[in-house]
Amino acid sequence: MSKRSQVTQESGDETFQPAKKVRRSSADVPTDVRSSTPSSSELRSPFLVDAPSQVVTVISWNVETSAPFLDLHPRKLVSYGVTSSKQQKPNVLRQLITRHNFPDFVCLQEVRGRHGDSQWIAALAAAANGSEGPKYTAYTSLNRATRGQRHFGVVTYAKNPSQIAVAREVEWDVEGRVMILEMHSGWALVNVYALNGSEYAWVDQRTPQKATSKTRNQRKREFNKLLLEEVKKMRARGLRVILIGDFNISLTKRDCIPRLRTEYPHALARKEFNEQFIPQAAVVDIFRERHGDKNEFSWFAKGKPRGTDCARVDYALVDRRLIGNVVESAYLEDPQERAHSDHAPVLLRLRDMDRIKQE
């Protein structure tokens, strides 16, 4: 049985029963958020076109932390473990959303919240919305620890929640790394923040005070296997699956500068992902499928010249049956797009996603 996601709704979608609802009206949107809509002179998306209504746009972004665009008092940020009380203004998330013409879905990783952080969750839900434009519903999967440092966490914003049949977390993830939206039309969007492997011990967030026998490298491989089984189950139910987010694996040598980590256990995790996960999930790395050997990256080491230390660890893995639906896959590498984060947003656009069941 799957866990229901925490959700903030702008409208009365009764398709599923979320664990918790926080209702907000446009009048509840903080002033700072309302005033953050960029002017026409600001950076515009090079991929912004007058798309037909059936084109679905998805943006995925590892934000590193959501604190800079949350409307919370500096003291509250400090109480949540944010070391700097200085907020970045204006709201860079809202700017990203507006600049790219209000995408249908916005998937964020590393939002760094817990299930019990009620004010943080409310601020996170409000961050995507302004005084103008469509209102987004936020579906969160957050760390279930009750103490210790705040890490991990994903949120998926949906512009039109009525198209969602089920929003759910998965029972085997207690860190807040997976958020699944299953659509009435027959496809599923999976927001993923996979583990970054190391030889440090993996901490089970249900019992953080107890040491485990697993390293983070071991849990990383286990996580990928569990995610693969989740995809297989959705495919068996007839869903066409799109996974998007930060997978913390560079797939090939051309996805890293200056070099690919080829030592054990990184090489083993990559081998299993390339030779087991991708073929058994029946998905493709859609950026490579469309752009071949083109060099674009999603992670950039801070403090180093651009292009000297970078990797492509964020991407979209698209069901093979949906390759023909893909309009574009790109990385928004411009520093203004990345804002405070060391990751660049990923852009994915697909057509005719409302017609899948009729095919």
UniProtKB/TrEMBL annotation:
Site for Important for catalytic activity, residues: D314
Give the keywords, sorted.
Hydrolase, Magnesium, Manganese, Metal-binding
Identify the cofactor(s). Mg(2+); Mn(2+)
Q: Which GO terms describe its molecular function?
A: DNA-(apurinic or apyrimidinic site) endonuclease activity; double-stranded DNA 3'-5' DNA exonuclease activity; metal ion binding; phosphoric diester hydrolase activity
Q: Which organism is it from?
A: Gloeophyllum trabeum (strain ATCC 11539 / FP-39264 / Madison 617) (Brown rot fungus)
Which residue stretches does the UniProt record annotate as biased composition, category Polar residues?
1-10
Region feature (Disordered): 1-45
User: What is the name attached to this protein's record?
Assistant: DNase I-like protein
Residues the UniProt record annotates as site (Transition state stabilizer): N248
Residue stretches of biased makeup (Low complexity): 34-45
Kindly give the SUPFAM superfamilies that the UniProt entry links to this protein.
Answer: DNase I-like (SSF56219)
